[in-house]
Amino acid sequence: MRVSRIQAEQNRQTVIDVASRLFREHGFDGIGLKDLMKGAGLTQGAFYKQFASKEDLAVQASKRAMESAADRWTAAMAANPHDPLGAVIEFYLSMDHREERMDGCPVAALGSDAARQGSDVKASFETGIKAYLEVLGRMIARTDGEQTIEKAMAVLSTMVGAVVLSRVVNDPDLAQAFLGAATQQVRDIVTV
User: Per the database entry, where does the chain bind DNA (predicted)?
Assistant: First the structure.
């Protein structure tokens, strides 16, 4: 049975959405095409009609994951327009975010994995990271106009590192301690 162009595009977007989440949970090499397509409710045969390769899908899924993360930052900032940086820090450095492997920050979930991928996947992450830095820079500039890019880099590095470390450990108290220490350090960076 033939699928209309509209349905084929909807299927493609569904696969990208599902891959964006499953890659964050399992890593790029931690899940095969069969399981990815099953997660999207499609057959493996449909994959090759929509993507040139798994790497092609990884590029598209990485872009989608970074866009999704940016949307979460935007929502947090909109929820607290008087303290947008505080809102981002509060959601990002939380135990809830620590547990959101499928929907959480793709840099924290896939950063070291993405470093081993091709240049197109890295480019998707680089674009997203630059967007993070731009947003952080604007928020930091509201409180302190000096050295905003360096401070934004320090804030992002601290936040991502804390989430990664909190996910690596089993002890929830230690995980919370990493997140709490990072929260304090980020606030110190911004106010210095």
Answer: 32-51
pLDDT of residue 171: 98
Sequence-distant (6+) residues with CB within 8 A of 172 are 95
Q: DSSP readout, the chain? A: ----HHHHHHHHHHHHHHHHHHHHHH-TTSS-HHHHHHHTT--HHHHHHH-S-HHHHHHHHHHHHHHHHHHHHHHHHHH-TTSHHHHHHHHHTSHHHHH-TTTS-HHHHHHHHHTTS-HHHHHHHHHHHHHHHHHHHHHHHHH--SSHHHHHHHHHHHHHHHHHHHHH-S-HHHHHHHHHHHHHHHHHHHH-
Q: What is the mean pLDDT of residues 85-92?
A: 95
51 dihedral zone (left: phi>0; alpha: psi -120 to 50; beta): beta
pLDDT (0 to 100) of residue 49: 84
**Residues near 42 by Cβ (< 8 Å), separated by ≥ 6?**
11, 14, 15
Mean pLDDT of all residues belonging to the chain: 92
